[in-house]
Amino acid sequence: MLKAIIPKLPMRDKAATKAFYIESLQFSEIGDYGDYLLIRKDNIEIHFFLFEALDPVQNYGQIYIRVADIRTLYQGYLDRGISIHPNGPLTIKPWGQQEFSLLDPDNNLLTFGESS
């Protein structure tokens, strides 16, 4: 039986990844194993693997995170100065989801969504 899915994303610099996710997005570190980092916030867990040769322009890593109270989350990120993707401000999509997106330091796309 399937229980959960945990995305694994590339990172070039663990310190930059920690700063973004832990300090800015307020995730917690749950494991640091040299070239492998684990973080969590609420019921969301993300793993990162070191990929120093990653070209961020060529990175197509992306995850979709379903949330509750998306407007509060969005405003909180804006209030903390987190950059929203230029093509990803909070909007209602044709499929009925409220969504917004941002990029992490390695150009992994994070899209947050809530049913309208």
TrEMBL record:
- One Pfam family per UniProt: Glyoxalase
Keyword Lipid biosynthesis in annotation: no
Q: Which domain of life is it from?
A: Bacteria
Instruction: Identify the residues that the record assigns to the VOC domain, covering every copy.
Output: 1-115
Keywords assigned by UniProt, alphabetized = Antibiotic resistance
- Tell me if Signal is a UniProt keyword of this record: no
Task: Output this protein's name.
Answer: Bleomycin resistance protein
Q: Which organism is it from?
A: Sphingobacterium bambusae
